[in-house]
Amino acid sequence: MTCIMEIIDLDCSILRKQIRRQETVMQKDIYIWGAGKYGDMAYFCYRDECNILGYIDSMPEKCGTLKNGILIYAPDIL
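Given the sequence above, the corresponding structure tokens read:
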């Protein structure tokens, strides 16, 4: 488990550096594609830098529910 957390921390660190380099991305409204473990990684990496409007997931049973207090939408909203 520690190894996975180290990878997540490293990935978040890399993503944050990229966001800081691209100031136009900061405080942008975004949607996260996927409400699984990678969606969680994206949420924890971007939550301080971006306004997360929702998750988009193709699994019908997830759509309309909340994850991290954010609504999960079906892909047809795009």
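Residues 1-5 have pLDDT under 50 and may be disordered. Try to locate this feature in the token string yourself.
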